[in-house]
Amino acid sequence: MDRPRRIAHLDMDAFFASVELLSFPELIGHPVVVGGRNAILPTTDAQGQKQFARLNQYAGRGVVTTSTYEARALGVFSGMGLMKSAILAPEAILLPANFEAYRHYSRLFKAAVLSVAPQVEDRGIDEIYIDLTDIDEDSPALARRIKQAVTDATGLSCSIGVTPNKLLSKICSDLDKPDGITILSVDEIPGRIWPLAAKKINGIGPKANQKLASMNIHTIGELAAAPVEMLVAQFGRTTGLWLNRVAHGLDDRPVVTESEPKSISRETTFERDLHVKHDRAMLTEIFTGLCMRLGDDLARKGYASRTIGIKLKYADFTVVTRDLTLPVDISDGAAIRKAAGECLRRVPIQQKIRLLGVRAGSLSPACAQAIPAGSGQADLPF
DNA sequence: CTGTCATTAGTCAGACAG
DNA sequence: ATTACTGTCTGACTAATG
Q1: Among the listed residues A180, A219, A224, A225, the one whose alpha carbon sits nearest the alpha carbon of residue A196
Q2: Which pLDDT tens digit goes with each residue over A26-70?
Q3: Looking at A20, A70, A121, A127, which residue is catalytic?
Q4: Domain A7-13+100-189 is of which CATH architecture?
Q5: A323-353: per-residue pLDDT in tens?
Q6: Which of A173, A181, A153, A174 is nearest to A22 (CA)?
Q7: Closest protein CA to C1' of nucleotide C2, residue
Q8: Which of A71, A169, A180, A364 could form a disulfide with A161 if both were Cys (CB 3.0 to 4.6 A apart)?
Q9: Bases of strand B lying below 7 A from some protein CB
Q10: Which nucleotides of strand C come closer than 7 angstroms to any CB of the protein?
Q11: For range A171-190, the mean pLDDT
Q12: Is CATH 3.30.1490.100 the classification given to domain A263-365?
């Protein structure tokens, strides 16, 4: 009665950039980059001609959020500093991120998939896992039908991997991007998965990859061939055993269709690094603003929090966090501000600061009427 | 009575990801 | 020179509890 699991991973192609191209079809085929705090919206000139900002006109902080495949061909990828990408692709078009639009299209494509397959796990704004096990239709036809539903609903393309588990499907959705379908069975693991770089495995990031490289392990196949005792010796028991399993394509995580958030946070990087004394007023204002916005987020989403934390990133990029667990749940901005202020007393303030963040953890569903914060004057933290 | 051990909560850092 | 923001998970360590 138990049929073998059949799991899909669906990944939207260059999602943010593709959404922008729906608005600006004249940019199709051009290198386009989305990102940047100071990116300029296109303007319309006297002749009714749209004017787009170029990468080489950008100045300031910020990173590439997404780039079109044409921009990627020039070496511009997500996460790259904009100033660096401007050197590689000075003439590329730069657009500011429009998260409202992305959330809109995210809802549209997820609803479209749900109409075809009901077991969907949300994995952020542009990807999902789908459990296809209980659907009586062969994988190629099903994958094509899902892709068609997504395109019909959004005008956007996606790539899909279908395999016996999430781990392999995540790898496979990337193998034929963009607009691809990859279907893989366990007997194809040696031929198609083992030649791939170890860092293709979701969970092996830069650090683990570098450590593996130092052990002369570069591919998933080499990882599969490594003695498990050696992996355990290097990475610890949990991670070592996990590395051995995933290298053999083993993963039994279920598709989880519902989940509750564990934390909600707000953080911001300043235009310039701020000095705790010299810029005290500005820091205080930003800090209070973050707390208030976090309070709004909690209220809007219907949660109260018992653990409030802060995060600072110094000029040299080192990060510190402090948190405080309270005797009672709180949800309003003023109470968050007070708790976060307590945390702030415990951090070093020798260096200039480039980022400030506030986080609410230990969440529980808020009781309908939150108690307003004591109106006592909270002392200024900076 | 003292020391050890297991367990849990809290705190903080770091890795990773979309 | 440049390096966002939001969120999850895990490991290490400490303190408290029994």
Answers
A1: A219
A2: 999 999 999 877 788 888 888 888 888 898 888 877 889 999 999
A3: A127
A4: 2-Layer Sandwich (3.30)
A5: 999 988 999 999 999 999 999 988 888 899 9
A6: A153
A7: A81
A8: A169
A9: 9-18
A10: 1-12
A11: 95
A12: yes
